[in-house]
User: Fold this.
Amino acid sequence: MPNPSNQALFVLLPPISDDMRGWAERLRAEVPGLDVLLAEDDASATQALARADAAYGWVSPEQLPRATQLRWLQNPFAGPFPGYYYQALIDHPAVVTNPRGIYSDHIAHHILMFMLALSRGLPYWNEAQRNGRWDTSARKHGYVNIAASTVLVNGVGGIGAETARLCATLGAKVNGVDPRPEHDCPARMHGPNELDALLPSADFVVTTVPHTPETEFMWNAERFERMKRSAYFINIGRGMTAKLDDLAAALAAGQIAGAGLDVFEIEPLPQGHPLWTMENVIITPHVAVADAEDISERRYDLLADNARRFVAGQPLRNVVDKARWY
Assistant:
């Protein structure tokens, strides 16, 4: 049944947050031609999707057959949960967009935190401090000068491009790997087929890629063996891109010098996993943007801009290649 008004129906799908309630009020006021509906539960979402022209959230395989009018779906996540994309959604005519780009500066700063702390031996100095030990030789791995280092950024979207810019500003040589470069940045760009050849020269390997069929467990024993023994591995993209047991084994064997990890194959990282107690590993619990106060507003700004574009029949921002999940 078509929308009885002349407005496009935009449905915010559950779970509904306080932020989303505020967005609904603002969209109604700020985007003429858009009728906004909050679907509080799955039953109301399924019913609303039968009339929806656009939606924010996830449409399940059971709900999708009802979404015959759906033309735009805003994915809340730049790197969504496994199963967000499925074949019927890939085949569906609806355009999917995502919020990539709104986190770039915050996550790049988190990456730099890892790089500086690991390269200067901060975990070792912290251990000595906790033990009340004045020990000028506490650091067990040599100092890596970022200004004279080579940084390999795997995934040069907004986050990777900003990371490359910051590293280059500090004087590093930056190589970037990405299948579809979209951002201007100081990294020398390479295709994914060149990744293995670049690994042996990198002092820092920073991976920001989303979880896709191509990237799942791309970081494994074979790749860690290709890295320098003095190199640091930093994963801030998605946990399912790196095999945790392979990483722990590489660290234990001294194949690499250390790691900074914000995302994990299994979250929360299981108690008792070797990574918890490795002195050359810094762990943060998937919080690179958790406390960034401006992310909700950035998310809304992108959503509102796309809503205006949708009503006006203009191209949307951040369109996803559904078959590739990003």
Notes: Residues 150 and 202 are 5 Å apart (CA to CA).
